[in-house]
Amino acid sequence: MQDQLIIFDTTLRDGEQSPGAAMTRDDKVRIGKQLERLRVDVIEAGFAASSPGDFEAIRAVAAAVKDSTVCSLARANESDVRRAGEAIKGANAGRVHTFIATSPIHMKHKLRMEPDQVLEAAVKAVKLAREYTDDVEFSAEDAVRSDVDFLCRIFEAAIMAGARTINVPDTVGYSVPALWGELFRQLMTRIPNSGKAVWSTHCHDDLGMAVANSLAAVLAGARQVECTINGLGERAGNASLEEVVMAVRTRADVFKLGSRIDATQIVPASKLVSTITGYPVQPNKAVVGANAFAHESGIHQDGVLKHRETYEIMRAADVGWGANRISLGKLSGRSAFKARLQELGMTPSDEALNVAFGKFKELADKKREIFDEDIQALMSDEAVTPAKEHYALVSLTAHSETGQKPYARVVITEEGRERRAEARGDGQVDATFQAIESLVQSGAELRLYSVNNVTEGSDSQGEVTVRLSKNGRIVNGTGADTDIVVASAKAYVNALNRLGARSRVNPQYGVEATVA
Ligand code: KIV
Ligand code: ZN
Predict the structure, then answer these.
(1) I want to staple 51 with a disulfide (CB 3.0 to 4.6 A). Which of 396, 406, 433, 504 is the partner?
(2) 202 in ligand 1 pocket by Cβ < 6 Å?
């Protein structure tokens, strides 16, 4: 039988460490269900000790997902491990992933611990985690800059203590493929009990080599790759799941490995993660970028028409392009709408369902065909999940005329109280933002504004991301509407609400991240 590659997705944990990408419990369940449809082996759903909200989110993912292992991260200390163990209790299959830094620079300056103390903490954490589950993973943070002799000692001890997966992270994205593969070869030959664990690679993309390094580790014998949808993640991101999976599949002649992944779910997963986190996908991104299968030059177009394989090494349909199906139409009823939401992993409250169904009907009046992506975007709308938000958009009037300064009038509620303002700006969007700011006076800095179409065609909904920062805190707000000025206003209000939300601890830095 062909050897299998285990795909460990950490979009909900390392992906969430991207600035402004914090997710709510419901967001995590929606993405978790899509990852299950994608058939990833392991879903790292969060870091249970970071906040009560993330603990609950992991529990909710563990309850909702049946076909993938659900995992929580934990630092190598008693309270983190217990919290992680509790969070995954309801899972069909649950894993605790405990880690501690092993590089001299981290041990000395961050942990202020001696190597022997680090080793002892790792062993204790693994043993404690085994009280909750047999499926325990141990990671040596910053392995890339760690002493190989020390890595051999700590990994051997972790395996002896009961770790079944040993993860070797390039935490700072520093390695190059030849060295990364060599490190795996060394560890796997030098550690006497290495055969008792699955070897795993976890690479960051600071030098743009996360995928190349991960694949080098696979060629050297690693059988688990830790990755994220769209390569989301801390700083420059993690290895991108879609690139790893499609490289292994397309070059089966090189890797000779199978995986459980249903690749037709890749593009829907990419779109969902982008919608929820507000991180747009660059058009020329491999596999999931809008141009990944577009042929611009006449010679290429001619070649592809004559024989597709002249210029294409993968088929767009195989990774889920064009798979967006017409979900529902104007005449669909409430129960069909509810059933489709359930299929997409969403179980809104009755109150939210009523609002969502109303929004769906409004959208169906404006747009001929409603796709799954439209429903996903609609369900991300704050109006649908009225979580007692501080601000809400009530109405917007915007106007432009050649030779006149564009104008906007907005009505918003602040804790239920209606407030209105008008402003002129460089465009309707600018005027809208200025009008909102004149009311809320947040003083936040606009760091990013981007618009993407949710589906094809000029009647598509525009999906807007607004990134705001204030006092070192960064949040993304999203909004979708067939009118992009309205979508922009929704995104701005959404970002303001997130700016006011609670915060939680980042497992690696101890600093705060926003929880929506
Ligand atoms: O990059 C890293 O080292 C991590 C660990 C917590 C696995 O994310
Ligand atoms: Zn990481």
Answers:
(1) 504
(2) yes
